[in-house]
Write a structure and sequence with these properties.
By secondary structure, this protein is an alpha/beta fold. The protein is built from 13 helices and eight strands. Helix 1 (2-9) runs antiparallel to helix 12 and helix 6 packs parallel to helix 7 (141-154). The chain is globular.
Length: 308
Amino acid sequence: MLGPVILAASRSDKMRRFISAAPGTKQVVDRFIAGETVDQVVPIVVDAAGKGLEVTLDVVGEDITTPAQAEAARDAYLELIERLKALDLGPRADMSVKLSMFGQALENGHELALANVRPVVEAADAIGTTVTLDAEDHTTLDSMFAIHEELRKDFPQTGCVIQSYLFRTEADARRLAAAGSRVRIVKGAYKEPASVAYQDKAEIDKAYVRITRILMEGEGYPMIGSHDPRLIAIAQELGRQAGRKLDEYEFQMLYGIRSDEHVRLAAEGHRMRVYTAYGTDWYGYFMRRLAEKPANLLFFGRSILTKG
């Protein structure tokens, strides 16, 4: 399987340099990354709103090594929120944040990440939008969930992400499926050991369905992160069985993938949110997109061959 190999490469500085220099890289990166600056991403939010879509915005970057970098990440989100406020786009755009980018892995990282993310949550709330804490590798999750719980005391609409490939996630879903919660379910895109995660795609999909059922039958707000037509159809049926209206859950898909499906689901009356990443530190995010789907890797390979 190529997926684990690609995920391992996502942490390799040597592979980062090689991929960044490859002739076809920019063509593929542009498919998944909306731009490098706020000026480039804001028109995409405007365009999405015009199509009846919502977005969640991710300033890409992770594995920072200094408190100053963590503060820069905080400031990048605050700049984004100010731009959305000026254009009255707050209600259309959730923020997705990775706590590793806010200093979670540094000394006293839990407290540092909480201190850096709180101003972002406050600023987002002030313009009528929300923040969702992305899930990263399993070693970070206890800290992420604790920060999520702390933020929800003052900002109860703060969301979080759970990953179906982890054994722990069904228990996490039952705990999180409470009134007022916002929970995004994804399959997972980090290299995890067999001691904590399913390795077989069929088992991951089965867990995804079980967890989606828990969320749909709970009292919170499920966010279904998937491009898989079968899982989307199952989620729709589980929502119907749970008596949910179409605006009582939402679908989320990545920018640049199945764009026609984004519009189709919105036209059916579903809330459809596009996960839109931007920024210069794109490598880790880009490599996980390649690992998730073989077609993405084939597309990248063809681009290198045709550009070389």
